[in-house]
Amino acid sequence: MELYPGLHRIDAPFEQGRQVNLWLFTGRRPVLVDTGVAGVPREAILPYFVDLGLPPQDLKLVINLHAHADHIGGNAEILRAAGVTGDGSDDSLLIAAHNTDAPAIADHRLLATEVAGIVDEERIAAFMRRCGDDVPVGRRFRGGEILEIGTSEIKVLHTPGHTAGSLSLYDLGRRALIHGESVMGVGTTDDRGFRSTPFGLDPQRYRQTLQQLTEIEFELFLSSHCPPMSRDDGLESIAVSLAELDSYEAACRTALAEGVSSAQEMAEAVSQEGGYQQGRRLLSQVEHTLRNWTREGLVTQTASGAYRLAR
Ligand SMILES: [Zn+2]
């Protein structure tokens, strides 16, 4: 559907009946934002192009908001449909992403093992099937670039947290912010009553991004997995995300006040204190928090390697 002249939302299927929003800027030099998991181009994107009368060969850029399967899995199929390799040699359609996420977008084994942390070969293979074939990332953003698409000026924002190289796009004229998953909202609760931890890879970078986004005068707030929101609903979603993060950090401080001997022990204490799901994600978040707080002098490490609150 067209949200406003020049921006379309393509509603694509994802797993377990969920959906993912893909975005299409039309006009001169059309740009597609995200490609879904493998198969989504055939099921949703290319039929949408047919309805619009847009030949895939006219696409100039595909931007991946971050290195997760539901954002990048259709890249190879889109390049194939446009009849190009994406290596830039023919001055045609390129895949673009943030510099930090680009390596895992171009190499899906790296995405499976390093980003998703999968070790089992069968699961790696299944994961890689959802990502489609490897293709090059021909353009790398650092944040701050302005793209002229049709009559719109789009600012590329580096909004790390969810992943280290997460991007958002801001349409300066329309004040529309496509944040992807830079704002993750509230956690879900599993059947044992434990909460998920939607604080991204690095909770501190995630907080900085949430604060950065509140300063943008957006009127339209566009996420990858929710319907479009007004400014007020977008700000509410950021506030709720910050409150979730506050309660995680409070659980971290309580654990550290008791003293912990390792990141693993702290993850267990934080899980108990805050009622969070144990697992690789929480451990990685706690490791980031410990590293950040140690760097800032909020946490000290004793001679035996245990962590304590400094003040
Ligand atoms: Zn994601």
Indicate the topology.
Elements (H helix, E strand, L loop, with lengths): L1 E3 L2 E7 L5 E7 L5 E3 L6 H13 L8 E3 L5 H4 L2 H8 L11 E5 L3 H5 L1 H8 L5 H10 L8 E3 L4 E4 L2 E7 L8 E5 L4 E5 L22 H12 L5 E4 L5 E2 H28 L4 H12 L5 H16 L3 E3 L5 E3 L2
Parallel strand pairs: 4-5, 5-6, 6-7, 11-12
Antiparallel strand pairs: 1-2, 2-3, 3-4, 8-9, 9-10, 10-11, 12-13, 14-15
Bound molecules: zinc ion (ZN).
Model description:
- The chain has 311 residues and is an alpha/beta fold.
- The protein has a domain at 2-182: Metallo-beta-lactamase, Chain A (4-Layer Sandwich), CATH 3.60.15.10.
- The chain is 37% helix and 21% strand.
- Strands 1-2-3-4-5-6-7 form a 7-stranded mixed β-sheet, with helices on one face. The chain has a 6-stranded mixed β-sheet with strand order 8-9-10-11-12-13.
- A hairpin with a 5-residue loop joins strand 12 (220-223) and strand 13.
- The model has no long low-confidence stretch (mean pLDDT 94).
- The structure holds zinc ion.
Brief overview:
It contains ten helices and 15 strands. By secondary structure, the chain is an alpha/beta fold.
Instruction: Please state the average pLDDT score.
Output: 94
Q: What's the CATH class of the domain at 2-182, please?
A: Alpha Beta
Which cofactors or ions or other ligands sit in this model?
Answer: zinc ion
Strand order, largest beta sheet: 1-2-3-4-5-6-7
Strand content: 15-25%
Q: What structural class do the secondary elements suggest?
A: alpha/beta
- Major sheet, described briefly? 7 strands, mixed
Q: Number of helical runs?
A: 10
State the CATH superfamily name of the domain at 2-182.
Ribonuclease Z/Hydroxyacylglutathione hydrolase-like
- Give the helices and strands as they follow along the chain: EEEEHEHHEHHHEEEEEHEEHHHEE
In the predicted model, the low-confidence regions spanning at least 5 consecutive residues are: none
The value of Rg in angstroms is 20 Å
- For the record, give the distance between the C-alpha atoms at the N and C termini, rounded to a whole number: 53 Å
